[in-house]
Amino acid sequence: xxxxxxxxxxxxxxxxxxxxxxxxxxxxxxxxxxxxxxxxxxxxxxxxxxxxxxxxxxxxxxxxxxxxxxxxxxxxxxxxxxxxxxxxxxxxxxxxxxxxxxxxxxxxxxxxxxxxxxxxxxxxxxxxxxxxxxxxxxxxxxxxxxxxxxxxxxxxxxxxxxxxxxxxxxxxxxxxxxxxxxxxxxxxxxxxxxxxxxxxxxxxxxxxxxxxxxxxxxxxxxxxxxxxxxxxxxxxxxxxxxxxxxxxxxxxxxxxxxxxxxxxxxxxxxxx
Length: 272
Ligand SMILES: Nc1ncnc2c1ncn2[C@@H]1O[C@H](COP(=O)(O)OP(=O)(O)OP(=O)(O)O)[C@@H](O)[C@H]1O
Prior knowledge:
Blueprint: E1 2-13, E2 19-29, E3 33-38, H1 44-51, E4 59-67, E5 70-71, H2 77-86, E6 88-91, H3 105-117, H4 121-134, H5 140-145, H6 153-166, E7 171-175, H7 183-198, E8 202-206, H8 210-216, E9 219-224, E10 227-233, H9 234-239, H10 244-271
Bound molecules: adenosine-5'-triphosphate.
């Protein structure tokens, strides 16, 4: 069963007439992961924001995006707000923008849990501590008393990912969620996403890292210049892509891995 079905999603700038995304169509089956890859500026983030009604008013969205009985493009902001808080969680690249700079992390996370999960504040505090521990955040009590600007980008990112996971939405859209994390935290956060996948979470995962997308995704959508270049099963797209651009992306990733491996081995050889 498809949880989201998008048909001919297009985004244009009504001030300049520029077409940012053109006729994008895809669907996401329940309990699967759709990976979205493509170069910077290809329209990956804008497409997801358009679905959730998060684009500025200067950008016009057309097409049809179905989430159950709801047509998201024509839906009222109030409906979209409910969907965003209960059904579809968006994890942004820039975690700083996701938190209120005037409240402590603890106040914000506890309030979100109380509002969306009907927890008492005592239960919400307990779950918050569990979430922060799971995200490998040391001294969670201190973090709860801190304001967003007092935390590193990586810490904020882990708080946002943990919060989204604990809200148990129907779909998580993760837009470059490991950007800004060091490699140990990247690995741990990816393991959490993998665990979520195994538990049946439906996921849209946007990443420049094809290795990560291959690790998590069932299907993959390759974008370039606002258009879908290729869309299909991840195993097929990664091993036998139809389009030269997809092949170019896969080959570039492979050669980077090879160069990295050679450099590391060379370093090891000279340091012995
Ligand atoms: N507020 C805006 N108004 C007009 N155009 C915008 C706005 N925000 C982004 N764009 C343009 O939309 C295009 C797509 O941007 P988008 O952020 O979706 O790319 P992306 O594929 O997610 O890139 P990245 O991988 O770097 O995050 C870009 O050309 C960008 O300049």
